[in-house]
Write a structure and sequence with these properties.
With about 120 residues, the protein is mainly beta. The chain has two helices and seven strands, in the order H-E-E-E-H-E-E-E-E.
Length: about 120
């Protein structure tokens, strides 16, 4: 039984989080949608994500438009290889939808975890 199960069963009155710690992990990549708006009458978004540079992986912010691929923009980081082409930037819902179907809203972020299975 985990803490949430105990709360749902009424065995505890509340759950407190002692702290949250974010750590850098080479097997995770980060995508954050900073803003979504019309720019020159076309939808655009400021996207913050991890980019391979000559000094290692760094978090950068770019202005992106539909059709752009985070794999290419990231310096060909494998973590963005499958499905991170921007299909749609929706100014009304303030979101981006990627070719893999994932949707992220303005002000939100996600971590992408690279999993490799060896047989």
């Amino acid at each position: 039984m985990n803490p949430v199960d105990a709360y749902d069963l009424g065995l505890v009155k509340r759950i407190e989080v002692d702290g949250i710690e974010e750590c850098e992990n080479a097997n995770q990549a980060f995508v954050e949608i900073r803003t979504v708006k019309l720019q020159s009458k076309r939808p655009a978004a400021k996207v913050k994500f991890d980019v391979a540079t000559k000094n290692g992986v760094q978090r950068k912010e770019i202005t992106a438009r539909g059709g752009q691929d985070l794999y290419v923009l990231s310096g060909n980081r494998d973590i963005y290889k499958d499905g991170y082409t921007i299909n749609e930037i929706d100014v009304v819902s303030k979101s981006i939808t990627f070719s893999n179907g994932q949707q992220i809203f303005e002000g939100r972020f996600m971590f992408i975890i690279l999993v490799s299975i060896r047989g």
